[in-house]
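Human: You know discrete backbone vocabularies at least as well as I do. Show me how you would write down a chain together with its backbone fold. No explanation is needed for now; the record alone will do.

Assistant:
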Amino acid sequence: MRYFRVFPALWLLLTWGASFAQSPVEKRLRLRDLGVQVGVFAPGKWNAITDVAGVRVGHVTLIEGEQIRTGLTAVLPHGENLFFHKVPAAIEVGNGFGKLMGLSQVEELGTIETPILLTGTLNVPRVADGLLDYMLSQPGMENVRSINPVVGETNDGALSEIRQRPLGSEHVLKAIEGARSGPVEEGAIGAGTGTICFGFKGGIGTSSRLLNSAQGGYTIGVLVQTNFDGILQVNGAPVGIELGRDYAQDLTPRVRVENRDGSCMIVVATDAPLEPRNLKRLAKRALTGMTAAGAFGSNGSGDYAIAFSVSNSNDWVENDRMTPLFQAAREATQEAIYNSLLMATSMTGRGGRKVESLPLERFSEILKKYRVIE
């Protein structure tokens, strides 16, 4: 098989002894497993984007030989045909150095009509073609002549031979058909297989927040694909500086630092009845979660937030009741970024390059030093 949609136990079996894949012996923990709380709102049951009712996530992870470390991740807002049951949506551009397909129609019409797929940069057209194949094959689509596939990306070329563009329709179908609710697999999986974040192995991360009844009782869920740089900080603790990943000596116009230019895709889901205008405002606040984690938005960073609502109500949340949702989106994005780092294991890929995972023991020591945890 060319692809792997894996669960943790199966993943260990498939990769055991593979010298160029993820290390199967690293025990990883999510941020809250370490006793760290980000922000003021509580997470949902899974602390994942799937805490928003109906939302499902599927991954395909592609690891071949020594050169291919890529994949794709599918986010499905609900279980119906999205072309006939569109969801209100908006996209906010943090920095436009990216290849987000489908942006202009979402901007114009304020809806999304396909699953949202994330992948590697040069795979975008092929994944979009596979998404079209999937949509056109659905019952009732026989006379459809226009579909707006939404496909985002980050560049995984540091670990994967990106020019091979190995993903196709079969992988898209596998990711969509394998999408599930409940816990979401994180780390170096799916679209996060070959990504790098803050100088460590990045990947897929997710988190959620619940608002109380006085604030509307809504749920916000976020999923991120992290492949960007900056100076990692956690609740005020200068983790990146302590780990020697501050790159202060390189912050001059004359020095080009490898992997300073990266990207981040953020997908925000909510059950709050939001019109596209306020979904765009929500997406904008999600991008501030990157800043809270220590990102600076480099010149070549393609940073986008896609926000959608699964609510069927037209009783839109009023502007003056948006603030708690803004805070929740920021918090969930920030924590999702941390989870992407903490759950990713070290990986060796193209050209024998190895990217180490964030060292958990040292990470915990730093948090204790700065009294983030006891």
